[in-house]
């Protein structure tokens, strides 16, 4: 089907979200709680856009809004911009310690106000880390407590038996809030230390052993040369192709 | 769940296994456990996760979400001080300080002898008689900082009497 986004006609498939269709067409809609590998959560509300359906206008979260035939979408209007500015301002005030939020706060030209800042906090509670961990099959972390006490944690803040130290939570975090350190082949995340696997070719540490075991057990078809790091795997493939071509 | 399995008292296991293995019974299980133990023991939460077949982190999230549940044992006398808007204006913070002076516990804590625990609640719907305090199921209205000491001393008297008679 065809939909119009910012005056441009783009292709969309029934069942996909507005955000998905717009991104594919190269139209930028800002997001925080969204990751292309996971379903839209509609949590951060930064992806709000204006949808005009036969003269009726409404403001929707594009990451959860399924495309419809004949809609006209505007990704930036004074109303939308104000909503985004407010969201950024509030999230920055909550997670003042996050450099990403600080930068967004400046980029969006949010006005200064007297709301209390939280220099110690970096998390914006977007839940994407929890969703990613769930999707990967560990579910080691969750949003605990509620209200002003709410935060992401492992049960009892202890090293979770189910955590495989894959670091996906830290990688998908839009605010850079999850601490992960790597030193001399030991990765520490969520109060748990993991021995890492060294690449058999270049010697660099590239994954926790638990992570490789987890993947091998769940998706053996994805595991190619699990003793090599990503770079060396690519290099190995390139060398094979080079040999093939020269023959 | 891998790791060390702590032996769960049969009674707790019976409470949990009384319900079918379905997510929607978790709250009912937790309510029964809270009633039985005065808190939610960790082993019981792990057993719920096993029984219902959901990740432990989800059970933990649920247990920490509701104020009705406690993860540490509550005292024999559980004091709830209302800190809703009306009670707050009527100086509920003073009551909390006064309780700290008398029993040396802060909200969320239990006294070492296991007799008293304290929490603040956000409104018990009795604003007309603010500030309000609830001990176990008994409601104390228009509590003053002097009155609170009388109440606590009264309870201490009861505890001593019970200790003597038994």
Please explain how this structure is put together.
Chain A has 247 residues and is α+β, with helices and mostly antiparallel strands. Chain A has two domains: 2-76, Ubiquitin-like (UB roll) (Roll), CATH 3.10.20.740; 128-244, no CATH class. Chain A is built from seven helices and eleven strands. Chain A has helices at 18-24, 78-94, 99-107, 128-135, 168-172, 209-218, 230-246; strands at residues 2-5, 8-11, 48-53, 56-61, 72-74, 142-144, 151-153, 180-183, 186-189, 192-198, 205-208. The longest helix of chain A has 17 residues, at 78-94. The model of chain A has no long low-confidence stretch (mean pLDDT 93). Chain B is of the alpha+beta class and 166 residues long. Chain B has seven helices and four strands; from the N terminus they run H-H-H-H-E-H-H-E-E-E-H. In chain B, strands 2-1-3-4 form a four-stranded mixed sheet, with helices on one face. Classes of the chains: A alpha+beta (247), B alpha+beta (166). The interface between A and B is medium-sized, with 16 and 14 residues.
